[in-house]
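Re: 2-oxoglutaric acid structure - here you go.
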Amino acid sequence: MYQHVKIPSDGEKIRISTDGLLAVPDNPIVPFIEGDGIGIDITPVMKKVVDAAVEKAYGGKRKISWMEIYAGEKATQVYGSDVWLPDETLQAAKEFVVSIKGPLTTPVGGGIRSINVALRQQLDLYICLRPVRYFSGVPSPVKSPEKTDMVIFRENSEDIYAGIEWEAESESAKKVIDFLVKDMGVTSIRFPQTSGIGIKPVSREGTERFVRKAIQYAIDNQRKSLTLVHKGNIMKFTEGAFKKWSYAVAANEFGAELLDGGPWMKLPQEKGGIIIKDVIADAFLQQILLRPEEYDVVATLNLNGDYISDALAAQVGGIGIAPGANLSDSVAIFEATHGTAPKYAGKDQVNPGSIILSAEMMLRHMGWVEAADMIIRAMEATIQHKIVTYDFARLMPGAQQVSCSAFGNAMIKYLS
Ligand SMILES: NC(=O)C1=CN([C@@H]2O[C@H](COP(=O)(O)OP(=O)(O)OC[C@H]3O[C@@H](n4cnc5c(N)ncnc54)[C@H](OP(=O)(O)O)[C@@H]3O)[C@@H](O)[C@H]2O)C=CC1
Ligand SMILES: O=C(O)CCC(=O)C(=O)O
Ligand SMILES: [Mg+2]
């Protein structure tokens, strides 16, 4: 029973069958969170484009029944001023299996650090999957943006994002520092009286389940390489262990063998002969600009993945068209890489491309590939016709600058 969520009477649930595959009815109920800030602009446009693509692809045989669920500022209006992430939102995301969300503001002074992070942790959405590809015609700060074609696997449940930290000069921080100094023999806290403390948990189990999925993705999608991006030279038992455990999964579970004496590895030919390699995070950030064609699937921890997502998005035109998915072994929540961009909220101005492409990933995940393909073609055609929102128009001579909703309407016109 739901208190404020209205289940559409004309739809059916997506289910997970006994073999672990999705069973998607022709009229699935898909929960959506509108999102804060520019959520009010982009989410309705995304729904309109998706509905039009599904209608066109399946001639009315298939249709999504959208069901609104709440998080962020809208949840506080519906459920009460302290309720940023209602339990029934989590329940609906689990029960209806596939959802999509707009961006959510991090509440100032609330009990929750980030509602996005809380959603990922509470539903154990341990993979953040963010493909980065170039759409021809998009303005980019690099000379050959088409060379960037990567898929980021960002570990989504561990690392410094676990939110284990204590404020400087608090009783808790003092206690932890005392323990570190007296019981653990730590001598390297430079200013113990005034240090805040954060803890970075990275586990073998978390790494293994995550990198297993990333390698399988690389095999299933015929990718050339998988690069582990880490800062293991400095953080040996977290980032370094991530690298070590990941190579071990490649060897023990996928039969990878050392390449030229290692540490790089290669999967057997029947698994695509994919190269498994690693690079230190700072070097990676310069190499993606200098030689992006050398990187394909990228597997990395949470904080590195956050930085890398925005950096790579910029290379192909910015976070206006950067899609993503948060995945567990059962539940999926699709969302854009960008945030709530508050200064543009309600102005019908921003690029709805990120959430539309996130919905495209959702349709593909559901097996509705014809509608997904149509969305990709419509995005390509709209940009080719130089019909773009402000973010692209400011770097694109001769472009026709349109509003967020007009961009969606242009995409609908070019659905084919
Ligand atoms: N998953 C989520 O829900 C996320 C939520 N957040 C939250 O969002 C809030 C704001 O974060 P902030 O750091 O400003 O980052 P944002 O991603 O919200 O915005 C930063 C800048 O990116 C550009 N931008 C973002 N979205 C679009 C779009 N759709 N179209 C065109 N340009 C876009 C704008 O650049 P310009 O000004 O140059 O036009 C904008 O000012 C914070 O509360 C943060 O915690 C942040 C990231 C992810
Ligand atoms: O939750 C937030 O405020 C930030 C999330 C974020 O930056 C991301 O998912 O990339
Ligand atoms: Mg981010």
